[in-house]
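Aim 2, interim progress: modelling of the flavin-adenine dinucleotide-bound target.
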Amino acid sequence: MVFWLAGVILLFALGLGPYLSHSPRSQCRCGPDDDCWPSLGAWGALNGTVGGQLVQLSPVGDVCHEAKYSNRSCTELIQHFRNTTWRVENPAALQVHTWEYSRQQKQSCHVSDPLEPGQCDRGRVAHYSAYVQSVLEVQEVVQFAASNRLRLVIRNTGHDLAGRSSAPNSLQLHTAGLKGIRHVESFTPQAPDGRSIPSEGPAVTVGAGVLTGELYSAAAEGGYTVVGGSCSTVGIAGGWMQGGGYGILTPSRGLGVDNVLEVGVVTAQGIYVTANQHQNQDLFWAVRGGGGGSFGVIVHVTFRTYPDVPAVVSKLNILSPHGPDSAFWDTVTDLLRTIPILVDRGDAVQAFAMPVLPGNQSFLTIESYLIHDSHAGGRDALDELQKRIEDRGLPVESSDEPFDRLSTYLALPKGLDQAGMGMMTASRLVSRDFMKSAQGPSRISQTLAQLSYGPGDVLSLEGMVGGPAVQRKATADSAIHPSWRSALMSLTLGRGLPSDPDWDAYDRIQNELAMTQLPVLESLEKGAMGGYLGIPFPYESNPSRVFWGSHYNRLLALKGRWDPDDLFITRLGVNSERWDEEGMCRVDRKQVYLRQYYKFLDRVRAWAAHRVGKS
Ligand SMILES: Cc1cc2nc3c(=O)[nH]c(=O)nc-3n(C[C@H](O)[C@H](O)[C@H](O)COP(=O)(O)OP(=O)(O)OC[C@H]3O[C@@H](n4cnc5c(N)ncnc54)[C@H](O)[C@@H]3O)c2cc1C
Ligand SMILES: *[C@@H]1O[C@H](CO)[C@@H](O)[C@H](O)[C@H]1NC(C)=O
Ligand SMILES: *[C@@H]1O[C@H](CO)[C@@H](O)[C@H](O)[C@H]1NC(C)=O
Ligand SMILES: *[C@@H]1O[C@H](CO)[C@@H](O)[C@H](O)[C@H]1NC(C)=O
Ligand SMILES: *[C@@H]1O[C@H](CO)[C@@H](O)[C@H](O)[C@H]1NC(C)=O
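Predicted structure of the complex, ligand included:
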């Protein structure tokens, strides 16, 4: 401890602290206050190339503040604040609205309830948004951003949980208008020089802006199924696929990345390329798990499709009247023993534990999807689970809903879409070996029981990230962390953030997740397992290790090849360590090392502060 404190003192004694936050301007992109920012005429010309669909953005809350106040617009904003579709459609809004705020600059355009006139600052909201509707328009925007050295951000639905679909001082490329869904019975990837290659069977090609729910509806109508997530307003071809992508068909059909047959991409040079197993194989490998906003603009993706199957959706709701006591955590142990049985059959489980609810109660809700040809084995495992819980004296409410066609269930609106809420997540994968070991399940629940939970904290147990199809070697070669192939579950902790810009509370929650919760999740398997890039801890101190592990060096090399000037940079993303927090200025190698050292010291300081606070 003493050594680190000495290190901090030395760092500041040498005057390095301030040095770390500055870069020579030549290493920076052009911001709105710089001479190199495009003139109004230049923006007008860009507008012409995107069919007049360039808009100047201001924060959504500005209509509730002095200069731009409008009773009608403000009333509409308040009415739609939690409306996920409204947020998808509004380029200045994000689903997790706290990412519209800038914690660094302490800026927001918060709309308080009851309404009070206050200041409206831009925060992390982009200055311009270009709504693109064709490959050509994507190319125009990419070339404009590259030649004007702008901070370009790709924004689809704005669901990102680490602020990666927005950035201060940026130009936003808005992909929501790239629609189109085409299903074919026999899909043949495009080969170079017209070589003939075999068909891959039935597949669907979707535009980058297609929402999961839109694809599910088309699939229900067409009588096929496709792997996708649970939230209907998440973009399936944007961030979901590039982060890995899981859903209830994952144990039986694989991850999102395992089901991609082809992608169309506009590169940093503004060139449109097709990537699949036959051409541009390296880019094809990188976009499947390398992360959104890092290798190019995806214009469309072709996914494998599957026959429709009957399914049973089974729910168990358990209310523990005495809070998170031993009966509650033993129930979690029982659940952890049941998940591998279901997942190994190709069924899926999604459970949410809420340890602290009003009235000293705890709640556990378990949703299982029996999609195996024969539902009997899964049913037995669930009956056994229910019996155990009842034997513990906990009240269980159960229900079963059979569907002749799984596609019908998938297309139903789920009400899982939470928008206009602040939230910080942290996640780690858990291996199949550990979950199937004799002591694994009880070790996990004992460990989870030790964490401190606040009201509304949600512990999510996702039994749909691994299983037989994820382990299949033939489709396993992609950029995601290698530990996915031995994973069976993902554990995610979600903590609510105050809706108003309470910077101290955000700091406290970040520190607690970084110093206590995440190290505990990490310790379960001593750092061997990765975390899910799509639902990450947004301040992960070593993203390359956690999200890609041994795949990172290859990703870096491919980044250098496809985007040598780092036009595409996101928080936590590939090569982001060479840029400042918001991707505006490059940091040189010396600074990279110093910054890592500085971050480490920061963690030690926060850890020490946390310990002191606890004792
Ligand atoms: C309520 C909720 C539920 C979720 N449920 C699931 C789930 O069931 N399963 C699961 O696997 N994940 C789930 N996620 C995580 C989700 O997959 C990620 O948030 C995902 O990144 C969202 O992608 P998007 O394109 O919709 O969002 P955006 O925020 O618009 O984009 C996310 C990232 O992808 C980049 N990007 C978007 N489009 C493109 C493109 N065309 N080309 C290049 N880069 C692009 C953006 O720059 C950004 O970095 C959930 C998230 C939320 C908030
Ligand atoms: C782009 O052009 C359209 C149509 O001419 C216009 O309505 C819009 O205001 C322009 N956008 C900007 C940012 O100038
Ligand atoms: C709009 O005006 C009405 C009537 O004056 C008022 O009651 C209401 O609070 C206003 N709403 C907002 C959001 O300002
Ligand atoms: C949510 O917003 C969308 C788009 O603006 C709108 O069509 C829909 O009616 C809204 N839903 C609710 C419940 O208000
Ligand atoms: C809440 O539940 C715990 C057991 O988990 C118990 O020890 C405690 O006394 C309960 N508190 C109240 C106020 O009922």
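The chain has four domains: 2-28+566-614, 40-174, 181-307, 311-404+418-539. Residues 71, 74-75, 78, 115 surround 2-acetamido-2-deoxy-beta-D-glucopyranose (ligand 3) (CB under 6 Å).
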